[in-house]
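seq as requested:
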Amino acid sequence: MELSTQKELVQYFSKYISDNKKSRIEEVLDYRTRHLTVVLEDIYQPQNASAIVRTCDIFGVQDLHIIENNNYYELNPEVVKGSSKWISMQQYNAHKNNTVECLEKLKKNNYRILATSPSAESLSINDVSLDQKTALVFGTEYTGVSDIVKVYADEMVTIPMFGFTESFNVSVSAALCLNAMITKMHQNKVNWQLSEPEKVALRLEWYRSIVVNAALYEKRFFEEFNNN
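struct tokens:
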């Protein structure tokens, strides 16, 4: 759909959305980013998966890539609390090893791959540079990222820890990493915000999710649009 048509459809939908909701959407759009994205490899506990979705939404990370090799990705409605409708989730589950497909796609789109690790020898998450687009990969709850992720990774990163316990819960790790990286990203002069066409497309997507019977209204819009 052309950008001009998207804008007209947004305007059409706006009649059915409150001013407060539209204002809130604009505030959130200003802080949405694709400069940083999250990849989940074989996460299988619904409460962890759902908590990470909420964390991405809270910190403004728009894209979540979900690799399903051995484990089916499932959300817990009690935990996710509707946040999944604000996030763009792409699932990779069509092949024997979906990790390669996901990481190759991210590399092709100029993302640097950072794989999380509990190893103290890895780069501290606090020292990560955000001068280029970055994909942060989290592995399964008990074994971490796969060997394939380690091969593709440009860097292994860790959260500094000072106790006896060797690692954080994966959803806690995601929250801590994103907090550190988003805070640094906002402080830097890097161009991390969405482009105007990206905002228009996402605004339209969110309007569709809010308006009751959106598909019916959209059909009516195009009937009027084609008759003019």
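The two ends are 17 Å apart (CA to CA).
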